[in-house]
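Late entry, guanosine-5'-monophosphate complex.
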Amino acid sequence: MEKLIIFSAPSGSGKTTVVKHLLSVMQDKLAFSVSATTRNPRPGEENGREYHFLDLNDFRNKIKEGAFLEHEEVYAGILYGTLWTEVRKIWAEGKAVVFDVDVKGGLNLKREFGDQALAVFLRPPSVDILMERLTKRSTEVEHQLQERIAKANYELSFESQYDTVVVNDKLDETFATCEKLVSDFIAKP
Ligand code: ADP
Ligand code: 5GP
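Prediction complete; structure with ligand written out below:
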């Protein structure tokens, strides 16, 4: 069966960290769906690796062409979307697709794919810790940081709609829990 593994959470909860880890330990079974976005690359990010970085016009054209499986305006004026080409390529390799998407995009994927999808909500131990991690990451300018923090409580209200919730407190424990969740899901017929 073609499978999907969805990680959603407020910004700063640890999705990127967890997804990178899973990809490194389960490379033969999983591959990452590289989304498209209109935000600027962060230092160290490469076009085609973390994201396909598009300008707004190109993104809008792709929407019109039906290139997206789902897309959302996650932050004001900033669009993110899952490309069909990514998902099909990964399934053709016989692997499960891993997504790092916002809470709404994650639920849309789960609704569309049902039992083919495992939807994991990664929760920070508290909003204070989330703020601390996000601030320390130092990737956003002040107003973007505030926007992300302001959205966190709203996003946290979606957790009950996910298949499972993992609290990302101690990273090694989070890694172990997620590895087990994902390998059990992949092993299921
Ligand atoms: P997201 O992709 O959900 O926005 P990141 O994976 O970028 O989140 O994590 C946000 C920051 O918190 C990063 O700097 C990361 O190194 C750090 N981090 C992630 N998980 C933990 C953890 N369990 N304990 C401490 N710091 C963490
Ligand atoms: P960041 O800018 O920190 O990389 O991501 C911001 C938010 O956008 C995160 O919640 C991330 O999961 C989400 N995101 C990334 N790609 C997609 C996508 O393809 N679709 C949706 N709906 N959200 C995405």
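Residues 9, 11-17, 133, 136-137, 168, 171, 174 surround adenosine-5'-diphosphate (ligand 1) (CB under 6 Å). Will revisit in the morning.
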